[in-house]
Design goal:
The strands form 5 sheets. Strands 1-8-3-6-9-10 form a 6-stranded antiparallel beta sheet. Strands 16-15-14-17-18 form a 5-stranded parallel beta sheet, covered by helices on one side. It contains 23 helices and 23 strands. By secondary structure, it is α/β, with parallel strands linked by helices. The longest helix has 25 residues, at about 140-165. The radius of gyration is 29 Å and the shape is globular. About 40% of the residues lie in helices and about 20% in strands.
Length: about 650
């Protein structure tokens, strides 16, 4: 960006001074990989140091000015006592007409994200403004803060004058380099595409496009591969548990970690560990890992989409790779869509033109919950759905539905979407989605891929996915975690005008529950205690709430069975997912007459463990293993199947006395 363009930006800018501080570093002190939390100026007062900003080296003597963009990485190596002033600010283009003009002319450039360093020709003029800024900032009164903003503009004017006199070259911070460096340093943390884009003052779409253009992969792809590389090293070079390794590389869910590791490496973490160690023993050499570099071993057949990072993974239905031309068309379409949405936006409750679809022409106008309701507009063949995000107009007969995470409820209503987030292979409804496009994990759908499918309705389970996709097609946000299973089904049914079908499904489930409870009571089982556990030799999680999953809803909520008293006390008061991680030594106290153990590929074999084998429920054959995939979901379709499984296995097990 040319200097005159930068001056135009400042003329149209609204600014806020965020902080100003004076910092003194002793000779020999270092500052390493400090990420600037906002755009900032660094002005040296005395001493000298070597400064690196995003890898660019600056030799800073007394009175040296350096500007860095938000997200830039700063390193300082002092040669002597070094004092500088650090000024953070936030600025944006205040006037819509100019902002629109700027975005159309150079959408890839963040207006204030320039990097430059220079020795001012009149250093004391700049110092005077900074001293006054610091004094006004310290006072912190309303009038002082207004004075601070006034002084900031004067400081900017003085600096622009001196930049122009010296014809200082400015350059844009490279968002790809910033992103690469950030991921390397923060891969253990929760990282999303939106977070990265916000961190470096770029749009998510622009950052993703630039990253792919330079590296060939999405930022989230790179994040995952970084984590997998770190995990490989830990698996071979340490005796850490799988849970410890998963947590160390940024995954709170060990099962998800195992699945994503296998998806990228080809074998499970445990199998990989054994394989590498056996190869090392066979060759009688120290362990050497030759696959830890990122890039060469990436599996091109798997796409981890752009916008989040872990929580839950699903099946492996492949998406065909689009040609570059198609991708660019979709990107352009997204840009136009978002621009039109911006130009025509009204209040939060005003639906955009062409929003949404339903799956039925049912003309019911009944609102079935406080979160969603529906009213059909016969003339336009649309339905207005009341949601927590306001009213959304959807087609009365949707043909191209995209649904994230809530697939089981949609399937239960007899609707087959054109695309969904990935589903575990063992999910109860997996076969019902045969041939349906996969969009990756539910929290990281690729907007370009969704646009490519031309949906007429999108159903999402989170604020993040709603924000990401709402400008593509009518999007309904279902806050499923705040609803019961029945409420969620009714809410989704109202989108499609299928309230009667939902009522029938719920009544049928209630009838099944009553019949199942009577069957278990007749067999002398209903009043026995049951426990649900998940884990291995080094520790077990005991489920202590109805909302945990792993069959807790089927057993504790619907069938009304009880856990041992020490567990039931918590189930009675806990309203969210909860469980305790216990050592094997104390586990027997938490096991009831029957025990359900959630298992998955790579789970420990407990057959030879003396404590586990001595537990009465295990020793007497009342251990029932449940598949993690099958019991993960809590939609009404899955719960229906889970109840069948639970009742069948309880009846088949030896009776508890």
């Amino acid at each position: 960006m040319q200097l005159d363009e930068q001056m135009k930006c400042w003329n149209h800018a609204a600014v806020k001074v965020l902080d100003i501080r004076r910092i003194v570093m002793e000779a020999g002190a270092q500052l390493s990989s400090y990420t600037l939390p906002a755009n900032g100026f660094i002005y040296t007062i005395r001493g000298s140091a070597v400064l690196q900003l995003d890898g660019q080296t600056y030799k800073a003597e007394r009175f040296y000015m350096l500007h860095g963009a938000k997200g830039s990485s700063l390193d300082i190596q002092t040669n002597e006592d070094f004092e500088y002033i650090l000024l953070y600010y936030r600025a944006f283009l205040a006037f819509p007409s100019y902002r629109k003009k700027w975005l159309l002319a150079q959408p890839e450039v963040a207006p204030f994200s320039l990097q430059y360093g220079f020795a001012p020709s009149s250093p004391l003029g700049l110092l005077r403004y900074l001293d006054e800024l610091e004094g006004a900032w310290i006072q912190s009164g309303s009038l002082d803060l207004l004075h601070t903003k006034s002084l900031f503009y004067q400081f900017i004017h003085e600096m622009m004058v001196q930049l122009a006199e010296q014809e200082i070259k400015t350059e844009l911070a490279d968002p790809v380099k910033q992103t690469l460096r950030y991921i390397q340093n923060h891969y253990r943390e929760q990282v999303t595409l939106d977070f990265l884009a916000e961190q470096f003052n770029y749009s998510s779409r622009h950052l993703s496009m630039q990253f792919k253009r330079q590296t060939g992969y999405s930022p989230i792809d790179y994040l995952i591969q970084t984590r997998i590389a770190k995990a490989r090293n830990l698996l071979v070079r340490s005796d850490a548990t799988l849970s410890e390794i998963a947590a160390e590389v940024g995954y709170s869910d060990v099962y998800y970690f195992s699945r994503i590791f296998k998806k990228h490496v080809g074998i499970s973490p445990i199998q990989y560990q054994r394989k590498i160690r056996e190869e090392a023993r066979a060759e009688d050499r120290p362990l050497v890992i030759s696959e830890s570099s990122i890039g060469r071993r990436w599996k091109s057949g798997y796409i981890d989409y752009e916008n989040h990072y872990q929580y839950i993974d699903g099946g492996s239905t492949p998406m065909k790779r689009r040609k570059t031309s198609s991708s660019m068309i979709m990107v352009a379409l997204l840009s136009i869509t978002m621009l039109l949405a911006a130009c025509s936006s009204g209040t939060a409750t005003t639906p955009a033109a062409g929003e949404g679809t339903g799956a039925s022409s049912n003309n019911s106008s009944t609102a079935v919950s406080s979160d969603t309701g529906s009213q059909t507009n016969k003339d336009n063949e649309t339905r207005t759905v009341s949601t927590v995000k306001g009213d959304v107009v959807v087609p009365a007969n949707p043909k191209r539905v995209v649904v994230l995470y809530l697939q089981g409820d949609v399937v239960a209503l007899g609707i087959k979407p054109i695309a969904t987030s990935e589903v575990f292979n063992g999910a109860a409804y997996k076969s019902e989605l045969e041939g349906v496009n996969s969009l990756g994990t539910w929290f990281e759908p690729n907007p370009e891929a969704v646009i490519d499918l031309d949906p007429d309705l999108i159903i999402v389970p989170s604020e993040e996915t709603y924000t990401l996709l709402k400008d593509i097609a009518p999007t309904v946000y279902i806050p499923y975690e705040k609803m019961t299973t029945e409420e969620r089904l009714q809410s989704i049914a109202s989108i499609f005008g299928k309230e009667q079908e939902a009522e029938t499904i719920i009544n049928n489930l209630n009838s099944k529950v009553e019949e199942s409870k009577q069957t278990l009571a007749d067999a002398g089982i209903l009043d026995k205690t049951v426990s649900i556990v998940e884990g291995g030799l080094k520790g077990m999680v005991v489920v202590e709430s109805k909302q945990y999953g792993r069959g807790s809803q089927a057993l504790y909520e619907y069938l009304g069975m009880k856990a041992p008293e020490v567990v039931q006390k918590k189930i009675d008061v806990v309203s969210e997912a909860g469980g305790s991680n216990l050592s094997m030594e104390v586990l027997p106290e938490y096991i009831g007459d029957y025990v359900f153990r959630s298992v998955y590929e790579g789970a420990d074999n407990l057959t030879d463990d003396p404590i586990w084998s001595s537990i009465p429920a295990v020793k007497e054959g009342r251990l029932i293993e449940i598949d993690f995939d099958f019991f993960y979901y809590s939609d009404i379709y899955s719960i229906n199947k889970q109840i069948d499984f639970v009742v069948e296995k309880l009846l088949a097990a030896p009776r508890a006395q």
